[in-house]
Design a protein that fits this description.
There is one protein chain. This protein is mostly beta strands and 72 residues long. It has one domain (2-63): Beta-grasp domain (Ubiquitin-like (UB roll), Roll). The chain is built from one helix and seven strands, in the order βββαββββ. The strands form two sheets. The chain has a five-stranded mixed β-sheet with strand order 2-1-7-4-5, with no helix packed on it. The chain has a two-stranded antiparallel ribbon with strand order 3-6. A hairpin with a 2-residue loop joins strand 4 (34-38) and strand 5 (41-42).
Amino acid sequence: MKIKVNGKDEEITGIESITVIDLLTKRDINPEMVSVEVNDKILSKEEFTTTLLKEGDRVEFLYFMGGGCLVS
């Protein structure tokens, strides 16, 4: 199955179906530290386990960044 992850083509082999949580686990990404968008729809955390990815899907991982500094 071919999908696009963060703008790059990726081929998932050896399995017929994969959920978003499976993909996160495969990439060693903590689901609490990322938002996920599939085909321009931001998923709720609850949808990670139920959303099956299919051929041609576009997946984006959106990471939260903290920090910054005050410049005076």
